[in-house]
Amino acid sequence: MKVLIVGYGxxxxxxxxxxxxxxxxxxxxxVTRQNLANQVTYEDLTDVEDLEVYDYFxxxxxxxxxxxxxxxxxxxxNFKNILVExxxxxxxxxxxxxxxxxxxxxxxxxxxxxxxxKELLRTQKVYYANVxxxxxxxxxxxxxxxANSYSAHATQGGGVLRDLSHELDYSTWxxxxxxxxxxxxxxxxxxxxxxxxxxxxIMVTDxxxxxNVTMDYLSKTPMRRLIIHTKETTIEADLINNRLVSYDVxxxxxxxxxxxxxxxxxxxxxxxxxxxxxxxxxxxxxxxGLKIVRLIDKIKREEL
Length: 304
What we know:
Elements: E1 2-6, H1 10-19, E2 27-31, E3 41-42, E4 56-59, H2 66-76, E5 81-85, E6 101-105, H3 112-121, E7 126-134, H4 137-140, H5 160-163, H6 166-175, E8 178-186, E9 198-205, E10 210-216, E11 223-230, E12 234-238, E13 243-247, E14 253-258, H7 266-277, E15 284-285, H8 286-301
Parallel strand pairs: 1-2, 1-4, 2-3, 4-5, 5-6, 7-10
Antiparallel strand pairs: 6-15, 7-11, 8-9, 9-10, 11-12, 12-13, 13-14
């Protein structure tokens, strides 16, 4: 199997390292302007003369390039698997026809705590869920100046709402489609960015679940957790410490997952394996990814 990775920033490098460990992958080429030793590279996607030789494509460039690159690929190849990093696009575009299988890389669906949580909630009525995610942007990618990253610039598809849109994806995956929403998306800090650094929303889903979702670039300690109240239990899920705990009506605790040393790449590995095996039922598809783009677009039009 031949793979082409488009974009070689931090996430492109991660996809490269993971996929090169797969026995089924015979070679990986990269679209990047970086000079990579002993590696086939192309400066631009349009420089690749025969795209049909590749079996699997990963678009991991800045968000503002996703639509252009995906449209180009779909004009050149047929019946291929294409994974686009999240979010799918930085804004809503007109649809184009394709017979390729397109996926959006919301890998947290494959986090082992999230998989256990999904199964647990199949038999429970969720009344209310509090979802919170945050990390201080300057410490996010310490190897580079945060002010020069795409996250800092709205025109490149940056901002907390798009960067941390995992929370929007898995919230709809777990709790249903958003029917009503009041939200605030704004820049409130003194960070040297022109993108939003705080988002908070109250939502109601088609399953009649009330959601409170909060995301930020401000948290001095990274956090990614959910607190869920169902008819029978209160559930705490911590995706950083890999812990899932359930409490019954008498406050008795059941630890359902507690694995602090899980490989940080496990959710990416499981997502790629699901796509390449053909068992992609839990992978975020094109339409689901587009639904999140439309939700973000609605939020941005109403922001402060």
